Amino acid sequence: EQNPKAVIVIFGATGDLAKRKLYPSIYRLLQNNRIGKDFAVVGVGRRPWSNEEFRKNVNTSIENNVPEHEEMDEFLSHFHYHPFDVTNPGSYKELKGLLEELDHTYEIPGNRMFYMAMAPEFFGTIAINLKNEGLTSTEGWSRLVIEKPFGTDLPSAQKLNDEIRAAFSEDQIFRIDHYLGKAMVQNIEVIRFANAIFEPLWNNRYIANIQITSSEWLGVEDRGRYYESSGALKDMVQNHILQVVALLAMEPPIKLTDEEIRSEKVKVLRALRPLKENEVSDYFVRGQYGKGSIRNEDVPGYREESNVDPNSNTETFVAGKLTIDNFRWAGTPIYIRTGKRMPAKSTKIVVQFKDIPMNLYYNNGHNMHPNLLVINIQPDEGITLHLNAKKTGDGSYARPIKLDYCNNCIDGINTPEAYEKLIDDCLRGDATNFTHWDEVALTWSYVDTIAKAWSSVAAEFPNYASGTMGPDASDDLLAKDGYHWWPVT
Ligand code: BG6
Q1: What is the pTM of this model?
Q2: Rounded to an integer, what distance in angstroms lies between the CA atom of residue 315 and that of residue 303?
Q3: Is 375 within 8 Å of 348 (Cβ atoms)?
Q4: Strands 464-466 vs 289-294: parallel, antiparallel or unpaired
Q5: Ligand 1 pocket, 147 CB below 6 A?
Q6: Is the CB of 216 under 6 A from ligand 1?
Q7: Where does the record place the catalytic residues (predicted)?
Q8: Is 12 assigned to a binding site?
Q9: Most CB contacts within 10 A, which of 104, 206, 250, 251?
């Protein structure tokens, strides 16, 4: 397979995402021979930077994020800066000239990746101007990569979608959900569909429940302004968590193409039982962190953070019970939880299998430990299978044992970062790990009811101390069904 040749245009080139993720990823793609020398990056931003200033910034970003780097001058020479006013058609005309020049210099056949890594209010304007000014009509391909948030509810997502669809067709649009670039999220399908011992059991007859936890110990940091209008439900559940749910619950695709996989994911999201506004409190719990202690350091509550309303009703924690109404899953709940200022940064899936029909063995007077399959997404990457076995000389006692597979112990530092994978996929035209509009629409419509129910009643916040696993109500949610959260830290 030939390496792709393209100009990557980054809107928001001076922003945080570009610095932390995009430049280092492009560098690693070059290091790993996923792109050749025939590429260029155009940074677009409001600031009046020169190429030199831009390259200095890119250089710092590589130094801070990539441990081994060399031949930086050659790499940086591919980077060009274009100061830009999003609403001025003249800016697009100049950009067009620059892109044509770069096509010529690097012998690029008009392939363009337009990466939106800036304030979402401009996504639509930029897309339509790119089209109107002719930047997307070349001999090669044009693709639009678009970051979250993709709208703030279904109507606004629909509006944004209509705007970008006026300029790009669905198969040219790559909506980023960076969880889909994570090695172990991509491994969910492989674990399920490449192992004869899991797939036959992967249903409501053998699985009691599935638990997805994505916790962070960081607070809202300097993102108060954005987070106030979002909250954990829209920030994490609508996108990352529901994508993971779809991968866990989908039927095996008939082929590994983006259309086939997507169509199975969409079916799961369609089977997700929608909540009525008055049932939301039976299925979903919200929380907001108060002050507390994280890693032996006192930290303030959410309402004391900068750019946050001192009476804020915004949730920083969500737990929920999802039910999927189809033959495979009816009766098997999927519990999810995510939040900030929890004890650790950790994303894990626990699949709890049903108990065996009767206990033949003793486990120190307790019931047998159920079998668990734990998929460790981060920071450890791998799987752990909890079984029962007898130690030598243990009579008729059975004890829980663990089989561990650690993915990043083997691939180590070479495990590609999510963004590196996603940029690589997009350059190669593979949309499997991006979200299709149908998925976005279904997840928003599910989440909108919850948001609506919550916005109409003020919450009793704060209701969990920083450094804890969220409010008690999150434990009660599972206790009602006779389950509990398995420890994940
Ligand atoms: C982002 C959210 O999409 O995902 C952040 O906006 C969150 O609030 C982040 O911290 C979590 O991603 P990761 O890869 O660190 O688990």
Answers
A1: 0.96
A2: 11
A3: yes
A4: parallel
A5: no
A6: yes
A7: 240 (proton acceptor)
A8: yes
A9: 250
